Each structure stands twice: as C-alpha cells, then as structure tokens.
C-alpha cells in the first residue's frame, strides 16, 4: 500500500468516525428528550 493510499484510507476512516459520533450524539439527545417528556407526562397524575 502506498503512502497516498494509506492517507486516503485514514481520511475515509476519520470521516466515518465523525459521522458515527454525530449519530451517536443525536441518538443520546433523542433518548434524553424522550425520557424528560415521559417523566413530565407522569408528573401530571
């Protein structure tokens, strides 16, 4: 594998890692807001 190919591979891996980090963060926020809304809905009783 040439150094140029290795750099391209690393760039693709870094790009995928960023996308996965963003998706994981979005999922965590979604779970947080769903939990908060369920807690608030339960407080009304």
TrEMBL record:
Q: Does the keyword Membrane apply?
A: yes
What keywords appear on the UniProt entry?
Answer: Membrane, Transmembrane, Transmembrane helix
Segments traversing the membrane: 21-39
Top-level taxon of the source organism:
Bacteria
Full protein name: Cytochrome C oxidase assembly protein
Q: Which organism is it from?
A: Sphingomonas donggukensis
Query: What taxonomic lineage is listed for the species of origin?
Result: Bacteria, Pseudomonadati, Pseudomonadota, Alphaproteobacteria, Sphingomonadales
């Amino acid at each position: 594998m040439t150094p140029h190919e290795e750099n391209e591979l690393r760039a693709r891996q870094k790009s995928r890692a960023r996308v996965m980090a963003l998706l994981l963060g979005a999922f965590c926020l979604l779970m947080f807001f769903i939990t908060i809304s369920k807690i608030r809905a339960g407080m009304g009783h």
